[in-house]
Amino acid sequence: MTEDAQILIARLLAHQTLRRDDKLVKRALSDELFRADLDGRLKACGMKFIDNVYADYVTLALTRDSEAKVFGTRETWQNNNVGLARDGVALLVVLWSLIILPKRERQEAHQLAEEDQNDMFGKEKPLPRAEDTSIGISYRALLADFGDKLGKKTRMDMNLGQLARIGFIERKGDLICEGPLLDLLMDTDTLKDRIINGALSDIFQIPATRTPAVLGMPVADESVAPDTTDSTEDQ
Question: pTM for the whole thing?
């Protein structure tokens, strides 16, 4: 058990993400003793194992206690926004909203991306994988809808490239698709209400019930930090 936990941690550090159907990952998700060993080793290093039943991958992240010691050495503490400028953070939240929220609705309805009608026995099926329910969005449509707010084409292209390198998205021609980290490092419970009823209420056709939320990075499993002072209005 000890050697397997060590190997799994080393592989996650080397590859950043691993699929949920990986042999050792499946063991970490089902074997309580193995998971306890894994969590103990990671905690000793200021890290933790991140998994999400809606995502096809798992990853590692810093614990809250270790964030300040790791990121606070800079003159300006960017926390763990992975170096993204505020328009990049806003773009990330927009992409999460347009890709992940619809995907999760399809997963919870046990509906595959290509299905046109509901299966009356669908609830008896296992939760569909992300790759079977996630639908990309058009780059041209994204640019038309959000380009003016997110720095126009040059800035958007630069930020999309950075998001792709980090692992949040994948580019497939004109399509922008979910990357391994997009549904792992964002806190749906915190973000969903803020976005649907706030910052993006016009997109989802739902009247805002309070002051629109700032499009900042949420505290997501303590792996992506908030940016509560910035807004995309001045981009």
Answer: 0.71
